[in-house]
Amino acid sequence: MTNSNADTNALRERALAFHALHVPGRPLVLPNAWDAMSARLAEEAGAAAVATTSAGLAWALGEADGDRLDRDRALAALARVTAVTGLPVSADIESGYAEDAAAVAATVRAVLAAGAVGVNIEDAAHTAGGGALRPVAEQAERLAAAREAADAAGVPLFVNARVDTFLRGAGGVDATLERAAAYRAAGADGVFVPGAVDPGVVKVLADGVDGPLNVLAVPGAPPVTELAALGVARVSAGSALAETAYAAARRAVRELLARGTLGAPADGFGYAALNALAARADRT
To answer: Where does the record place a coiled coil (predicted)?
Structure first.
């Protein structure tokens, strides 16, 4: 829980500001950070808010994604992100780092204590069959527990219900809308459907979901301007930025080992620039 009424009030105001950024037709574009410095980069670039990526965060800690990272380490990493930015932060908490609804509620209380004002909660159950989707009623119960925990803390946490039907090949539009309706009724504020990239499908989802629709920016997906015209309210990068950073690091390592050389950092963004950004953030 937060430490004081002042902390709770600050979180409440930040949460309300985060809610207001979700506008169909004028989507919130979220760079997904995986550590403190990537969050600072997002803020420096002009992002209105920052989300974490569970995959990137796990990789940075030497773990695999998919509910394999324990809650304490994940939330400690989250706290390092919120500590370095004044922007609203939404936490990707996978399926809640929890076996049951009561434990999801405990995770949400810890998320608030870490300073985040939003969560993504997915309906894939990695511990029960390699990513099979939870039954709708069970997932709705978990989302309701998250909603109740946040409400009890006095913070309008933005609960983003991730529907993995498209991502897991576990259903089409009808199944997605059924889950979305149940999750919204359970208290979710928005619905995230990664894997939905076809413009026609995205339009049907945007029209059919009673609330802000979040989609994932992936290669082959429509650009943000087109997604805006389709009625999308939020576009996330997911793990793509972390993948890009690690790909650049791998190329540099291979060049060093194979050729004995290192190219200059792209755009001249080397030690001095990074250190200056870190120093500036330290003073905020």
So the answer is: none
Closest CA to 212 of 53, 19, 50, 51: 19
Strand 124-125 and strand 118-122: pairing? unpaired
Report the greatest alpha carbon distance in the chain: 59
Quick one: tokens of 3? 């430490």
Determine the Cα–Cα distance for residues 218 and 240; give it in Å rounded to an integer: 8
Pick from 175, 138, 242, 72: nearest CA to 250: 242
Per DSSP (E only), the strands in the chain are 28-30, 32-33, 50-52, 89-92, 118-122, 124-125, 132-133, 158-162, 190-192, 213-216, 234-236
Phi-psi region of 85 (alpha: psi -120 to 50; beta: other; left: phi over 0): beta
How is the chain split among helix, strand and coil, in percent rounded to 5? Answer: 50, 15, 35
Q: What is the pLDDT of residue 3?
A: 54
> Would you state the structure tokens that stand for residue 237, as one six-digit string?
């990068």
Closest CA to 105 of 30, 186, 210, 22: 186
Separation between Cα atoms, residue 13 and residue 157, nearest integer Å: 10
Domains of the chain: 5-239 (3.20.20.60)
Other Cβ atoms less than 10 A from the Cβ of 9: the count is 13
